[in-house]
Design a protein that fits this description.
4-stranded antiparallel beta sheet; 3-stranded antiparallel beta sheet; 125 residues; single chain; alpha+beta; 5 helices; PH-domain like
Length: 125
């Protein structure tokens, strides 16, 4: 578990599921041009977690993007996978909150498992 998620946990909150970036981030022109430094930094600085109370996501090193949303404030978690993504097991998740908030996070390993765990946590409440 990452340091951002650990520092964000509140009283009686624990991590139920933690997702990672898929290895596909290392196969791109961007990674080759940066000698694989860019995907290493992306992999090192990205944290995706579902707790018993919230979804916590942080990406980026210099420019940081964060999402911390209570489970009760999330309408749905949508999964977007291409054919290659389905074969290799990666895709994008879109967290849709009440009020129309939409946050998309790409190249996540096993996005269907992320959504499944989210739905189980919501059903448990």
């Amino acid at each position: 578990m990452g340091s951002y998620v650990n520092s964000s946990l509140i009283h009686e909150e624990n991590v139920v599921y933690e997702a990672k970036n898929h290895w596909i981030i290392f196969i791109s022109l961007k990674s080759i041009m940066t000698l694989f430094i860019s995907p290493l930094i992306e992999n090192w600085t990205s944290e995706y977690a579902i707790t018993n109370k919230r979804v916590i996501i942080k990406t980026g090193l210099i420019s940081r993007k964060t999402l911390e949303m209570n489970l009760s404030k999330i309408e749905s978690v949508n999964v977007d996978q291409s054919i290659l993504g389905r074969i290799l097991g990666y895709g994008a998740i879109m967290v849709i909150g009440t009020g129309g908030t939409r946050e998309k996070f790409s190249d996540i390993a096993d996005p269907m498992q992320f959504r499944r765990v989210f739905q189980e946590c919501v059903d448990a409440h």
